[in-house]
Specification:
Layout lengths: L10 H13 L12 H7 L8 E6 H8 L2 E4 L2 E6 L2 E5 L4 H14 L3 H4 E8 L12 E6 L3 H10 L4 E5 L6 E4 L15 E4 L4 E5 L1 H13 L8 H11 L4 E5 L6 H4 L10 H11 L2 E8 L3 E9 L4 H15 L7 H9 L1 E5 L2 E9 H11 L1
Antiparallel strand pairs: 1-5, 1-11, 2-3, 3-4, 5-6, 6-10, 7-8, 8-9, 9-10, 11-12, 12-13, 13-15, 14-15
Length: about 350
């Protein structure tokens, strides 16, 4: 397959595309083995899971000063400045503090990470609310008792079984009247909470009782997850590409001579994708990984050609040209990596120049 690009028009869109590629993702030439904690969390999800993402909340707070559940609300540390926003009213904040005291569970310190999974997409890209798995530290019996009393927040569904299950309450009806489609929260053990639709939670509990049917990462999956999760505060993998990706190349007629057509061809040979990001209050390090099999070297050449050709575009700002020059695009076996390392300030200047 020959994929080398020839440029025509639309280079501003190309710059935006490469900017998105670079900012989405982590680093390292060899994939480390995913942690036991990651693999055990993934095993909670169904076998046909299509995509999984993870955010390490404690890592973000410690390394980058980003907190979602602090006493002052949401706090971001960006470019040497603190930005604070509290979405809760004073009454809601008081209720939350009372719940924290009663349950012994403080999301700001006890919620470690959040995994998000989505199952296969069909002919449309519309998706239901995803299944969440929360890794945390808490006393399940104490938390269950506090949730049972929090009737403005949840409705007990099953508190007599081994795994307490609650439904999120909706305003405007009795808290004791859980509807069939209300999202559920299940306290799986003292380390893990699942949140999802009734069907998702029921299927999850069935899998736990039978000991079968969960996601079991293959050797190929583990390599991709290893690249994406390696020392990163946030990562995401597409284990199965959406069905629509296979149709992109067929939408384009001719010999694929423009960069848009080359990118469409790349989309058709991409089998999986992963991304990860690590950041501090000053620096950003990111990687996106494409699984292209025997086409990896061709995909690498296309992306390098796109980045090189875009640098000749007259309307590029200095920040945009520097960003493109600093991108590292390499292939390792069946993988293609796009790496970026920069500072928050340089990234902010780049974003403003794109606008």
């Amino acid at each position: 397959m020959t994929l080398y690009p020839r440029f025509s028009s639309g280079l501003p869109v190309l710059v935006a595309l490469l900017f998105a590629l670079g900012t989405l993702a982590g680093c390292g030439p060899n994939p480390p083995e995913p942690s036991d904690d990651t693999l055990s969390a993934l095993a909670v999800f169904p076998a046909d899971v299509q995509s999984v993402s993870m955010v390490d909340l404690q890592r973000l707070k410690e390394d980058a000063g980003i907190s979602f559940f602090g006493e002052r609300g949401i706090q971001l540390t960006l470019l040497d400045s603190d930005f604070v926003f509290d979405p809760l009213s004073q009454e809601q904040r008081a209720d939350l503090n009372a719940f924290i005291e009663a349950s012994g569970f403080n999301p700001d310190t006890d919620l470690q990470s959040v995994y998000v999974a989505a199952s296969p997409m069909g002919e449309t890209v519309e998706m239901e609310a995803p299944l969440l798995v929360l890794n945390a530290q808490f006393e399940r019996e104490r938390l269950a008792a506090s949730l049972a009393d929090a009737t403005d927040l949840v409705t007990p569904v099953d508190t007599d079984g081994d795994i307490p299950v609650f439904a999120f309450a909706n305003e405007g009806r009795s808290a004791n009247e859980a509807r069939a489609n209300d999202r559920r929260i299940a306290l799986l053990n003292d380390r893990r909470i699942a949140i999802g639709s009734p069907a998702d939670i029921d299927a999850l509990l069935d899998r736990m009782q039978s000991g079968t049917g969960g996601f079991d990462a293959s050797a190929d999956d583990r390599e991709l997850i290893g690249y994406a999760s390696a020392n990163n505060a946030a990562w995401s993998v597409l284990l199965r590409m959406p069905e629509q990706m296979g149709d992109i190349g067929e939408m384009i007629d001719g010999d694929a001579s423009t960069w848009q057509e080359r990118m469409a061809r790349v989309a058709t040979v991409t089998q999986q994708a992963g991304m990860g990001v690590s950041l501090t209050s000053e620096d950003v390090q990111a990687r996106i990984t494409l699984v292209a099999g025997e086409n990896a070297s061709d995909v690498r050449s296309v992306l390098r050609g796109l980045a090189s050709g875009a640098q000749a575009y007259d309307d590029l700002s200095e920040q945009q040209r520097t960003f493109l020059q600093d991108l590292e695009i390499n292939d390792t076996g069946r993988f293609v990596h796009v790496d970026m390392q920069t500072t928050q300030r340089a990234l902010a200047e780049l974003a403003m120049s794109v606008q």
